[in-house]
Amino acid sequence: MNNSNFGLNRTKEGVLSFAWYDAALKGITLPDGQAIYEICFQVIGQKGTTTYLQFSSNPTQIEVSMGEGVLIDLKTEGGKIEIR
């Protein structure tokens, strides 16, 4: 995985896409709670400004599968970012 896995062309609209495909279908195994990647950004806005973070299938469809191509559920949880 590297920078080319991230779609950066709509970040000014607040949209960041991500896609990763393992052509060998070997995948990876991580412990529960382990991060796959981390997003760092520079906040702009006035004190008390709030924005929400959500996972969406737009523009990139959310799909997670096991090596055999069996789809598995991905539990996502949005968040809130507040400038203090």
Describe the structure concisely.
The chain has strands at about 5, 15-20, 50-55, 65, 70, 80. By secondary structure, it is mostly beta strands.
Please provide a written account of the structure.
With 84 residues, the chain is an all-beta fold. It has one domain. The chain contains no helices and six strands. The protein has strands at residues 6-7, 17-18, 50-53, 64-65, 71-72, 79-82. A two-stranded antiparallel sheet has the order 1-2. Strand 4 (64-65) and strand 5 form a beta hairpin. The radius of gyration is 15 Å and the shape is elongated. The model has no long low-confidence stretch (mean pLDDT 87).
Helical residue percent band = under 10%
Shape: elongated
Name the poorly predicted regions: none
Specify the biggest β-sheet: 2 strands, antiparallel
Read across the widest sheet, the strand sequence of neighbours is 1-2
Count of separate DSSP helical elements: 0
> What percentage of the residues does DSSP assign to strands (E)?
15-25%
Order of helices and strands: EEEEEE
Radius of gyration: 15 Å
Strand elements, count: 6
Distance, first to last CA: 33 Å
- Overall pLDDT metric: 87
Task: Name the structural class.
Answer: mainly beta
How many structural domains in the coordinates? 1
